[in-house]
Design goal:
With 170 residues, this protein is of the alpha+beta class. It has helices at residues 26-41, 126-139, 150-169; strands at residues 46-48, 58-61, 71-92, 95-113, 119-125. A five-stranded antiparallel sheet has the order 1-2-3-4-5. A hairpin with a 5-residue loop joins strand 4 (95-113) and strand 5 (119-125). It is globular and about 45 Å long. The two termini are 28 Å apart. Bound molecules: zinc ion. Zinc ion is lined by residues 92-94, 134, 138.
Length: 170
């Protein structure tokens, strides 16, 4: 396993729309293993392949406290259940040290393939539902700062540009 470099906002590659995985083979399983290690090392609770510059529909999530419950989503399909929306504070490994409230569906239905290529279906709510919707957005090239006002987004952009300048100087 290996940790992979994570693209950071405003890298244009984060805007790429991911394509479906045709078959869950050893290469995909290796990607999943590397993504899990990258997410746990960061540490974070979700990572989309887009964030490691692989533009295929693969997501890993673990919202447990002790990194004990990895969830692998290959070719996920997500449908909100009901009309209820609730804001929850979100962060993103591609936008470090920035957090903002984003309203999302309270409950969702998720259909996906696991790392063996076996289809599964679950209903999720709370943090997991939020996380699934956040990661799914990545596969469409959407970031959570896209939901903020232009003024707030501009502030994030400045902050990130400053961070990248400092990283270059270091
Ligand atoms: Zn993210």
């Amino acid at each position: 396993m290996a940790t992979l470099p994570i693209l950071e906002f405003p890298d244009e590659r984060l805007r790429t729309k991911a394509v479906a995985v045709e078959s869950v083979d050893d290469e995909v399983r290796q990607l999943v293993a590397d993504m899990l290690e990258t997410m746990y090392t960061a540490p974070g609770i979700g990572l989309a392949a887009t964030q490691v510059d692989v533009h295929r529909r693969v997501i890993v999530i673990d919202v447990s406290e002790d990194q004990s419950t990895p969830l692998v989503l290959i070719n996920p399909e997500v449908t909100p259940i009901g009309e209820e929306r609730e804001p929850m504070q979100e962060g993103c490994l591609s936008i470090p040290e920035y957090f903002a409230d984003v309203p999302r569906a309270l409950r969702v239905n998720l259909k996906a393939l696991d790392r063996d290529g076996t289809p599964y279906e679950i209903e999720a709510d709370g943090l997991l539902a939020h996380c699934i919707q956040h990661e799914l957005d990545h596969l469409e090239g959407v970031l959570f700062v896209d939901y903020l006002s232009p003024l707030k987004r501009d502030r994030v952009l400045k902050k990130m540009n400053k961070r990248h300048r400092q990283m270059q100087d270091a």
